[in-house]
Design brief:
Elements (H helix, E strand, L loop, with lengths): L1 H13 L2 H8 L5 H20 L7 H14 L1 H11 L4 H6 L2 H12 L6 H18 L8 H24 L7 H24 L7 H28 L2 H5 L4 H13 L6 H40 L10
Helix pairs in contact: 1-11, 1-13, 2-11, 3-10, 3-11, 4-9, 4-10, 5-9, 7-8, 7-9, 8-14, 10-11
Length: 308
């Protein structure tokens, strides 16, 4: 439970991104914002850990950095700009269903009916919270939203499958991915948005928050959680991000919460909790069964297999 709660701090932190971007940062610079979120944080973690990839981990870190950061950020921003309010977050909320399917192929995690129903409930709850007045759906925006969700979901599953090199902690792995993703975003930001804008004190403070707390610390907690929880458990924490954004908008920006939004928040939060308890119960059950079998075979000496 402690690991779950610490991992949950990552999407909660990401839920503050919108408020910080609108109140502190220059407008219409999503790629530049993504670049300053990823690259300085990655370089800081590299300097802190002083560990570089070796062997196959050069290309593995590049792939994970592209999926989790480099491709995810631009696609997410593109979908947010081209779709009507909240639609990008609704498409993103189907991430647990993406991960459930990918985990079946790559991790051997068989999704249950409960997991699938919980994923649908989470998506429905998020849609009630963030979906605003309907508008024309842009095909490019929808494809970008689906691609961003697929990118992050694939990155989550591959991070779980590949694990970490022996002797390398999650802090170093986070630094590798953020640096690789930031280097991928850099040329896109320069070509599409041009030279960096002038920054005042508020913007500098906003970018520092995004780079350190919102990215370096949050992604470290996220990748640490992937290493200790199932991929399904981790992805079911994702709905906490739009829920946090709605709460921050109400508390700090004076945005009203309607009764429908409150119902949606309760539904999405309940699905998040159910997603943890359902998977956790199966893991504990398997661990207990393994330990019991080991005790019977070994005369009371439980095997390490119980530490699933």
């Amino acid at each position: 439970m402690r690991v779950i709660l610490l991992t949950a701090l990552a999407p909660i932190s990401w839920g503050t991104t919108y408020a910080v971007a609108t109140e502190f940062l220059p407008p219409d610079r999503p790629l530049f914002t993504g670049l300053l979120r990823a690259l300085p944080a990655g370089l800081f973690l590299l300097a802190l850990t002083r560990v570089l990839p070796r062997g196959a981990w050069w290309w593995k870190a590049a792939v994970l950095g592209a999926l989790n950061i480099g491709a995810f950020f631009p696609l997410l921003f593109l979908s947010a700009y081209r779709l009507p309010g909240g639609m990008a977050a609704v498409v993103g909320s189907v991430g647990p269903l993406f991960v459930a399917g990918l985990a079946t192929v790559f991790l051997g995690e068989r999704p249950t009916v409960r997991t699938l129903l919980t994923g649908v409930a989470a998506a429905l709850g998020v849609s009630l919270v963030v979906l605003k007045a309907a508008g024309a759906l842009d095909a490019v925006g929808v494809l970008a939203a689906l691609a961003s969700t697929a990118s992050m979901s694939t990155g989550t599953v591959l991070t779980k499958r590949w694990g970490r090199p022996e002797g390398v902690g999650p802090l170093a792995l986070t630094g590798w991915q953020l640096t690789a993703g930031g280097l991928l975003i850099a040329p896109l930001a320069l070509l599409i948005e041009g030279a960096p804008p002038a920054l005042d004190g508020r913007a500098v403070a906003g970018y520092l928050y995004l780079a350190l707390a919102n990215t370096a610390v949050a992604y470290w907690l996220w990748f640490r959680g992937i290493g200790r929880l199932t991929a399904t458990q981790v992805t079911f924490l994702g709905p906490l991000s739009p829920l946090t954004a709605a709460i921050v908008g109400w508390a700090a920006l004076g945005q009203a919460l309607t009764p429908v939004q409150l119902v949606g928040m309760g539904l999405a939060f309940g699905a998040t909790v159910a997603g943890q308890l359902g998977v956790r119960g199966r893991v504990v059950g398997v661990a207990s069964g393994t330990a019991a079998a080991a005790t019977g075979a070994k005369g009371g000496a439980p095997l390490r297999a119980a530490r699933l």
